[in-house]
Amino acid sequence: MRFCRRWSVTCWTVMAPRRFPLPVALRWCSGFFSSSQVSALWQLYICFGIILAVGFTFTGMVPHVFLVSEWFSSNRASAIGFVYAGTGLGIMLLAPLSQWLTSSYGWARAFEIYGAIVLSRASAGRLDFYQHGPYGEHVRHRAEKSR
How far apart, in whole angstroms, are the C-alpha atoms of residue 99 and residue 56? Predict the structure, then answer.
């Protein structure tokens, strides 16, 4: 995952963040949808543990820090703290939702529902609402110089 994290930094700083979330959301969705079709444990290890994990890496800590850093310079640590508090709150709500989906629809359908949620929310939200912050140009310029 260390390689994925480094590549994620490069993609979020050099590539336009408006173009990047769609392939990431598709990778994440393919992990969910392929996990719903497994019939053996080793297939789940590959689909969930590798494909889904790579997609999750590109939407995890690195993009949050990058996107928050574009908008905040003086209170950046507090802003990143609020983002991670929101992440913890989302994880806290995810456990009962997962339990309800699995008990109501089964584990395979729960994976498919999560894939549909990721595809609809992650791709549309970032494509529609992303704007460059006032401090982001300096970060992108520095990253392009280092290439």
Answer: 20
Instruction: Return the structure tokens found at 140.
Output: 């992108």
> How many CB atoms within 10 Å of residue 21?
21
Residue 28: its pLDDT value, please? 79
Please give the C-alpha separations between residue 79 and each of 6, 50, 61, 76, 117, in angstroms, as whole numbers: 22, 30, 13, 5, 26
* Residue numbers of the chain with a pLDDT score lower than 70: 1-22, 122-147
Domain extent for 88: 2-146
pLDDT at 42: 92
- The H or E element containing residue 123 is helix 107-129
Structure tokens at 107: 């584990």
CA dihedral for 113, 119, 124, 129, sign (positive or negative): positive
